[in-house]
Automatic annotation (TrEMBL):
Residues 68-103, 104-139, 152-187 form the EF-hand domain. One of its GO terms (biological process) is regulation of potassium ion transmembrane transport. InterPro entries: EF-hand-dom_pair, EF_Hand_1_Ca_BS, EF_hand_dom, Recoverin. This is EF-hand domain-containing protein. It comes from Periophthalmus magnuspinnatus. SMART domains: EFh.
Amino acid sequence: QFRSVTDEGELSTVCYRPEGLDRLVQQTNFSKKELQILYRGFKNECPSGVVNEETFKSIYSQFFPQGDSSTYAHFLFDAFDTQNNGAVNFEDFVISLSIILRGSTADKLGWAFNLYDINKDGCITREEMTDIMSSIYDMMGKYTYPCIKDNDAKEHVDNFFQKMDKNKDGVVTIDEFLETCQKDENIMQSMMMFDNVI
Ligand SMILES: *[C@@H]1O[C@H](CO)[C@@H](O)[C@H](O)[C@H]1NC(C)=O
Ligand SMILES: [Ca+2]
Ligand SMILES: [Ca+2]
C-alpha cells in the first residue's frame, strides 16, 4: 500500500517531531508530505512506533496467503533492521523504502545484495542464495506455481553463480554483483529480484 503514497492527495495532520521530519527529507527521496502520509500509515499499523519481525511475517502472510512467507519475511526483516536490534523504527523503514522505490540502480542493487547476504559478511554464498530462492518459492506457494519443482531453485542458484562469480572462488562479492547486474538488466528480472515480492 506504500507504493501509492504519491497518488494519495490528502493532507494529514500528524504529530511528528519537525526536526526528525526535516532530517528525513534530506536523507530520503520523499517529500515532507509523503513522509507525513507514510508516518500516519506506519503509526496506524504499528502504534508502538517500531516494527518487529512478527509484524513483517503477519503482513507478508496477508499478501501471500497461498504460501509460507515466514522465512522470506525473516530475511527481509533482517535487511530493514539495519541497526540489528530486532526492531525497525520509522526512520529505518523509510530510508530502506526510499532506496527501494526512489534510489539509483546501484542503491537498489546494494540493498538487494545486503538482503541476499544473509549473515551480512560481505559475500553471498551458494547456501545463502539457495535459502533465499527456497524462501521465495515457499512464499509463492505450490498451488500458484504448480510447475515449480525443487530442482528449479538449484538451477536458479547455479545460473546466478555462473553469471556473477567472475573469479570462480565460490562466493559473490558486491563488486561482482554490481558489475554483472549493471551490464545485464535482464538478470534482475530472471533472478526474481525483490521488485516482485517486496
Ligand atoms: C535519491 O535519488 C538519487 C538519484 O537517483 C540517488 O542518487 C540517491 O542515492 C537517492 N537516495 C536515497 C536515500 O534513496
Ligand atoms: Ca554471507
Ligand atoms: Ca567471486
